Amino acid sequence: IPLHLPWIDAINKLKKQRGAVIMAHSYQSPEIFHGVADVTGDSLGLAQAARDCDAGLIVVCGVHFMAESAKILAPDKTVLIPDLEAGCSLASSITAADVRALKARHPGVPVVSYANTSAAVKAESDAICTSANAVQVVEAMGTPKVIFLPDEFLGRYVAGQTDVELVLWHGRCEVHERFTAQQARHAREQFDARLVAHPECPPEVLAEADFVGSTTAMGKWLARKQPARVALITECSMADNLRAQFPRTQFIRPCNLCPHMQRITLQNIYAALRDLRHAIEIPADTIAGARRALDRMLAVGR
Ligand code: CIZ
Ligand code: SF4
User: One fold for both 91-172+284-300 and 176-257?
Assistant: First the structure.
């Protein structure tokens, strides 16, 4: 962090001048997460904070679909992303046209989409879900069959917890799909670590885990259990950012970095505030459709 201090000071000064709020996802590096963010959280938490904050200018330090979700819930505010190329393998695995084709193939079957999708895909969906409420949202559709997009592994995990039949898509998180059961077992056997895994991991990894949960659920589990050693089988920055909060817990590898999250840097956050770029623009009808699907989720519960 010392190396970053001049940038952190400059950003925090400019942020005040602009009256901006900086929001950082849990997968952002510690200098961003602890150094410049006013709000931190998972993708939905950030979107809800964008809706509820007083500022008219929001910088989302995260990937593109997260900035879109903030814009969907706060359409009258200016939402900036420091790098438009910060994408996501899950979000880019499916287009709105793909969703329309699936609906044509399965008439009358509702579509539940994971938050990790574009605004256009959300607008084609009946409801949005997170990894924390996926089972509840699927069951709230009230149908024997649901189209579940786009994460195949999350879909298989959800399918194991409900009687609703799921039509799945072949999307993968390129960060979580790389973990292996052998890595998980190694962490447990060599380091006596508890294993906490994100449901975007392959089924054989989830089978080894002591706890499977979303980004937010992982933090709550740690606070409850305070294990001596834990392997967070997820994006590396999770452990980096939680370390300060749990000084008695040792964080064991494996972890993988998300290359898209890494595109956000102190330098481009500064440039975003200086030049007011890159503003997220979404057509009004897409915002309305996506908002309806998000509201359906919020009615079920976070
Ligand atoms: O894997 C991701 O990108 C996650 C967990 C996003 C989120 O919902 O915060
Ligand atoms: Fe997408 Fe995976 Fe990166 Fe999350 S960690 S932004 S799901 S590629």
Answer: yes
- Which ligand has its closest atom nearest to the C-alpha of 93? 2
Per-residue pLDDT of the chain (302 residues; tens, 9 = 90+): 678 899 999 999 999 999 999 999 999 999 999 999 999 999 989 999 999 999 999 999 999 999 999 999 999 999 999 999 999 999 999 999 999 999 999 999 999 999 999 999 999 999 999 999 999 999 999 999 999 999 999 999 999 999 999 999 999 999 999 999 999 999 999 999 999 999 999 999 999 999 999 999 999 999 999 999 999 999 999 999 999 899 999 999 999 999 999 999 999 999 999 999 999 999 999 999 999 999 999 899 76
List the residue whose alpha carbon is closest to atom 2 of ligand 1: 116
Q: 265 CB less than 6 Å from ligand 1? A: no
For residue 17, report the distance from its CA to the centre of ligand 1, in Å: 31
Pair of tokens at residue 23: 């929001």
Backbone angles phi, psi at 222, to 5 degrees: -60, -45
Ligand 2: atom nearest CA of 173 is: 2
Residue spans per domain, the chain: 2-87+262-275, 91-172+284-300, 176-257
Tokens representing residue 140 in the block: 């709230």
Judge: domain 2-87+262-275, CATH 3.40.50.10800.
yes
Residue closest by Cα to atom 3 of ligand 2? 258
Residue 57 and residue 77 in contact, taking contact as beta carbons nearer than 8 Å: yes
> Is this prediction's ipTM beyond 0.90?
yes
Which ligand number lies closest to the CA of residue 88?
2
CATH homologous superfamily for 91-172+284-300?
NadA-like (3.40.50.10800)
Atom of ligand 1 nearest to the CA of 25: 9
Best residue among 118, 130, 175 to mutate for probing ligand 2's pocket (most ligand atoms within 8 Å of CB) is: 175
Exposure pattern of 156-175 as b/e (b: 16+ CB <10 Å)? bbbbeeeebebebbebbbbb
CA distances to 81, 152, 218 from 138, rounded to whole Å, are: 31, 15, 22
We find that the CATH architecture of domain 176-257 is: 3-Layer(aba) Sandwich (3.40)
- For 207, the token pair is 């089978």
Taking CA atoms only, the protein residue closest to ligand 2 atom 1 is 88
